[in-house]
Design brief:
- The chain is globular.
- Helix 3 runs antiparallel to helix 4.
- It is mainly α and 292 residues long.
- The longest helix has 35 residues.
- 85% of the residues lie in helices and 0% in strands.
- It has twelve helices and no strands.
């Protein structure tokens, strides 16, 4: 009773070989087509990187400060966001930071574009919710390193493979919270919209989504945080940015290199988190009819 009954070793080895051979054959047959399918995303990421790297640094600080002020109306948060980004640049990490921000922006936009429609579909269909919940559970519990294996085998090492891994890892929160936000809309409000003869599209666009927006923004915030966390791991497969110096510091035991870039990642997380939370709170106040 000390040895758990397990599959015969030869059978297990053959099973693994069959799966590996099938996946390898799939990669050889459809790898080029899959690369072509994702080529627009590669172009989008390259454009975003060039835009961030080519933008004058005062303009970047001005945009970040403007977003912080628009979201929070707080001088303290605005100053903290600008000073954090300025400090990151002062310590020589500006280019890597711009590459990381470009990757986060592109991955977040893709996750939102895919996640919000999926969340709406789950909110409108109990069958869709029942079928997608287990998949989202798997996506949220699977170790992040495992995401890298299939995308690297399909697309090789590079930006696109890293971007897909980041999007898949960061997608579940925006899907779940969009579903929750739409489902939580007051039934009496929906009945009032029905009484005025609103179509399904009008109810969704003019009633459900505006009222669910604070919850959706919470999902977007979580998606940004998870994308930022995954960018560091994705540096193992060639994603440029702050993750690569951290990886190099771990490999070569460069203490200051790792600490500085680690703090830069924390700084970016602080900026994204506080600004997106500020926008979420303003939307919540607007929903409650408070003074914004």
């Amino acid at each position: 009773m000390n040895r758990f009954p397990q599959m015969n070793e030869e059978t297990l080895r053959n099973l693994k070989r069959v799966i590996d051979d099938a996946f390898r054959e799939f990669t050889r047959s459809y790898g080029s087509a899959i690369e072509g399918f994702f080529d627009p995303l590669r172009r989008m990421l390259i454009f975003s990187e060039r835009l961030m790297l080519g933008m004058p640094w005062p303009l970047v600080l001005l945009i970040v400060g403007g977003l912080a002020w628009l979201g929070s109306r707080s001088v303290r948060l605005t100053a903290a966001s600008v000073l954090t980004l300025a400090a990151i640049g002062y310590f020589g990490m500006w280019e890597d930071t711009m590459r990381t921000i470009a990757m986060i922006l592109v991955c977040t936009l893709i996750a939102i574009a895919v996640g919000i429609p999926l969340g709406i579909l789950m909110a409108r269909s109990g069958q869709a919710q029942a079928s997608m919940n287990p998949l989202l559970d798997v996506m949220q519990t699977m170790p992040s390193f495992v995401y890298l294996i299939p995308v690297v085998m399909l697309l090789g090492i590079g930006r696109v493979a890293g971007m897909i891994a980041v999007v898949v890892y960061a997608l579940p929160p925006v899907v779940r919270l969009t579903n929750l936000g739409v489902r939580e809309v007051d039934r009496e409000v929906i009945e009032a919209a029905d009484a005025f003869g609103s179509s399904a599209w009008q109810k969704l666009w003019n009633v459900q989504l505006p009222l669910a927006l604070p919850t959706i923004m919470a999902g977007v915030n979580q998606t940004i945080m998870m994308a930022l966390a995954m960018v560091v791991i994705a540096s193992m497969i060639g994603v440029q940015g702050l993750g690569q110096p951290v990886l190099r510091a771990i490999s070569n035991q460069y203490f200051t290199l790792g600490v500085f870039n680690g703090f830069a990642i924390v700084g970016i997380a602080f900026i994204f988190d506080r600004i997106s939370q500020a926008f979420g709170r303003r939307l919540q106040k607007h929903r409650e009819g408070g003074n914004v």
